[in-house]
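Protocol step 4 of 6: structure prediction from sequence.
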Amino acid sequence: MTDANWQRLDALDHKIVAKLALDARISNRAIAAELGVTEGTIRTRIKRLQNEGLIQFTVVTDFRMAGSPNLCMLGIDADPSRVTEVAERLKQMPEISCVVLMLGRYNLLAMGLFTNIEQLNELIVEQIRSLPGVQRVETSISVHNLKYEAGVAKITPAAVID
């Protein structure tokens, strides 16, 4: 959610989003009781937030459900004038689950789960390196995940209204 969208929400919207961010399975009735409004108000607000594309509900599965995949990170150096274009193309690749614009060693970081090295190599050689503007791709493959939290990338504002 952009800062402009976040600021457009009123205090009740902020509180609803904060409750859902903590537990997306919380009932409308429970939110209404905690915030002192009717269940219909909560239902209407959530539906509006969804329709405006400001919130969405998804099921996040533990990646181990896919067998024995490895979390792979791709540090990508791209021509600075084409970083946005490369990022957009990466976003459209079904194998890639995360694309981040970076300051530092790489322009872009892309992540995905791969069950074999051949699948990863094919993606890099045939799709990523051939993108206009891509200069270099450096691959890191996890060998053991000590901690992996699917909700680690939650987007929250700088200060949540309680």
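Step 5 (inspection) to follow. The domain at 3-51 is CATH 1.10.10.10 (Arc Repressor Mutant, subunit A).
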